[in-house]
Write a structure and sequence with these properties.
Elements lengths: L1 H10 L23 H4 L3 H12 L22 E2 L7 H5 L11 H21 L8 H26 L25 H17 L15 H16 L28 H14 L14 H10 L10 E8 L1 H7 L13 E2 L1 H6 L9 E4 L7 E3 L10 E5 L6 E6 L7 H6 E3 L3 E4 L2 E5 L22 E3 L23 E8 H15 L5 H12 L5 H4 L7 H15 L6 H7 L3 H4 L4 E2 L17 E2 L25 H7 L8
Antiparallel strand pairs: 1-3, 2-12, 4-5, 6-7, 8-11, 9-10, 13-14
Length: 626
């Protein structure tokens, strides 16, 4: 099975170019291909569908080269210089820059175009049976709707091309206008629902990773949830955004019914009864979470990955592996202090409830949590069993997800059967800042998720190597998200519904955290308090998976959350007990900057601007503030 999955994964590695064997699949603008060329053979028809899949963005690369979601979320920071995500974090961009246009707009519309072309012609293939052609048709239909959902998350209302042959790249589109948000939602959710009817519940292992009924319903759940949230549910900011024909592009009135629709969409996935949480009984949260993030396919016959993309572990691996561990490791992607603060204690309480005047150097500590930022002691790492001398109390007695996701200075790096030694993230340390280096974490932490410490990272090859980096099953949407979607939506229109506790506690139990009502009994039925607890659970459970960027924007809390970046003081020259390193410090090298960590956000940043190139071509309505 492993070799089969690797083969399919390789076909999906490219998000911008065709990977088919026949040259005539490379469609050129002046060389339209005829259906009898492409769809005469089963092999080239299947290859064409694989190419439609290949337009999926590469979410597994946190470096910001292709997508800005990871480095522009308040949960993470990168020290790389010269990357365009810096302009988002510090609000210095404008529509003329075409920021990230290829991977957030152009390539997505190309994928939509190719999906439609495939749908129009797949039934012409004489070598494929009707049942399989039906599956393939609905795979392309799913992908087309999924690609639209990605555009909508980034830009809000977009151009819905439907089944018409219009190529979005044509020059004369002056009569076109972006479709309203409600029309986009109706179209995409309908397409996903209809596609779900023609997709299997699961595939044989050789086709693992392809669209299923559950994948279609799960993406539909996410679209409905985003649509119910404040950004797209009658917020005042967008009431004046009127298209060139006088119609509002966004809903102008809040509709509570949207939350009920979102809850039912998530419940539709739950009621399929084919997905679960890996290690749901919570008896071995460390092993379960490790296996979930490093195994391709179901784990112990449990399918948590509803839709995922099999990718090389290389991009994530080099970004999160400390420099000392191997000859080619960039070790620059890590959590912010805010994310470190977000994880619960072992008793299930969240230690940091806020910050005095928003200053992260002054955390407000819950005295019932047992948390302390005073002192150091020897600590046994709960995953590796290392005896870590002089461990800051901040990192002790935290919940299991903390130790899966966060690596702090002083931890031992494990690489297969080899102990690589202590990771040093201070200035002059083996993985810390140096004047000639940008391969260090700006916050003094590294991300641990998706790292398989059973493999020897020191012998990994280049980006084409499949020996050590192997493959990971990158989650596009997994069952834990569906459960969190469900409880969030329920709480907004029916805060007393017992399902909120049932399904929220499923996520906590797998993570080895006590039930929410045992820790916060006062939150039961309290919509406001439960909302904050659900959001906190979402932040820690889904961290690094490209959710946080969109969550803080669709909740419309980015003006307070997308702020200053803090971490440990990486300018210190050692991490001994009581060193200056262990001080909450503004990260002056966030995004590779030399003297700044004050990220900026203005309300225009809730959505990307329509690029000036597109504005010139279509004369469509621009997003608010641009």
């Amino acid at each position: 099975m492993k070799n089969i999955l690797k083969t399919f994964g390789l076909l999906l590695l490219s998000g911008t170019a065709f990977v088919a064997c026949d040259d005539y699949l490379d469609r050129q603008p002046d060389e339209q291909l005829t259906p009898d060329q492409i769809f005469l053979k089963a092999s080239t028809t299947e290859q064409y569908l694989t190419n439609v899949y290949a337009y999926q963005p590469n979410y597994s690369d946190p470096s910001g080269q292709t997508l800005p979601w990871a480095p522009c979320a308040d949960e993470s920071s990168i020290a790389y210089t010269g990357r365009s995500y810096t302009q988002i974090n510090y609000d210095t961009w404008d529509p003329s820059i075409n920021l990230q246009r290829s991977y957030t707009y152009n390539n997505i519309y190309k994928g939509i175009r190719e999906a439609s072309y495939f749908m129009q012609h797949v039934y012409e293939c004489p070598e494929i049976g009707d049942t399989d052609k039906g599956y393939m048709y609905n795979e392309a239909r799913f992908l087309r709707a999924y690609y639209y959902s990605l555009l909508m998350s980034t830009f809000g209302p977009v151009f819905i091309l439907g089944d018409e042959p219009t190529d979005y790249e044509q020059e004369d589109l002056n009569e076109r206008e972006r479709d309203s948000w409600e029309k986009c939602v109706d179209y995409v959710t309908t397409e996903l629902y209809e596609a779900s009817k023609g997709l299997p519940q699961e595939w044989a292992s050789a086709k693992y990773g392809r669209a299923t009924k559950g994948a279609a319903l799960a993406i539909r759940s996410r679209v409905y949830l985003y649509s119910a949230r404040k950004l797209f549910n009658g917020n005042d900011l967008y009431k004046g955004v009127i298209d060139k024909y006088g119609n509002p592009l966004f809903p102008t009135v809040y509709d509570e019914k949207k939350w009920e629709t979102a809850a039912q969409a998530a419940k539709d996935v739950i009621d399929m009864n084919i997905y679960g949480l890996v290690g749901a009984d919570g008896t071995d949260p460390y092993g379960s979470l490790h296996d979930l993030y490093t195994t391709v396919g179901p784990v112990n016959s449990v399918t948590e990955m509803i839709f995922s993309r099999i990718v090389s572990a290389y991009n994530w691996g080099i970004a999160a592996t400390p420099r000392m561990a191997r000859s080619r490791a960039y070790g620059s992607f890590g959590p912010t202090q805010k994310l470190v603060d977000a994880f619960a204690m072992a008793n299930g309480r969240y230690p940091i409830t806020g910050y005095t005047n928003g200053d992260q150097t002054q955390p407000i500590i819950d005295p019932e949590s047992g948390y302390s930022e005073t002192g150091f002691s020897t600590f046994t790492h709960p995953i590796f069993g290392d005896q870590l001398a002089n461990t800051f109390m901040m990192y002790q007695n935290r919940e299991p997800r903390f130790y899966i996701n966060v690596l702090w200075s002083g931890c031992v790096w494990h690489s297969g059967n080899v102990n690589k030694g202590v990771v040093q993230l201070y200035t002059g340390g083996n993985s810390g800042y140096a004047a000639t280096q940008q391969n260090y974490p700006a916050t003094g932490y590294l991300a641990g998720k998706f790292i398989d410490h059973t493999k020897d990272t020191s012998t990994a090859g280049d980006s084409t190597s499949t020996d050590v980096w192997d493959f990971i099953d990158w989650p596009i949407i997994r069952y834990a998200e569906i459960l969190l979607n469900y409880v969030e939506a329920l709480n907004e229109y029916d805060p007393g519904n017992p399902d909120i506790l049932t399904y929220l506690n499923m996520v906590r139990k797998r993570a080895g955290v006590p039930d929410i009502e045992k820790v916060y009994p006062e939150a039961v039925g309290n919509q406001k308090q439960m909302r904050e607890l659900i959001r906190r659970e979402r932040m820690v459970e889904l961290c690094y998976e490209n959710h946080r960027y969109f969550d803080i924007r669709t909740w419309m809390i980015a003006e307070t959350e997308h702020g200053d970046v803090y971490g440990m003081n990486i300018d210190a020259t050692n991490h001994n007990a009581n060193s200056a390193f262990w001080k909450r410090t503004l990260s002056t090298r966030d995004s590779g900057l030399s003297a700044n960590g004050h990220r900026k956000f203005s309300p225009r940043g809730y959505l990307f601007p329509i690029s000036q190139e597109e504005m010139d071509r279509t004369n469509c309505t621009q997003n608010y503030g641009w």
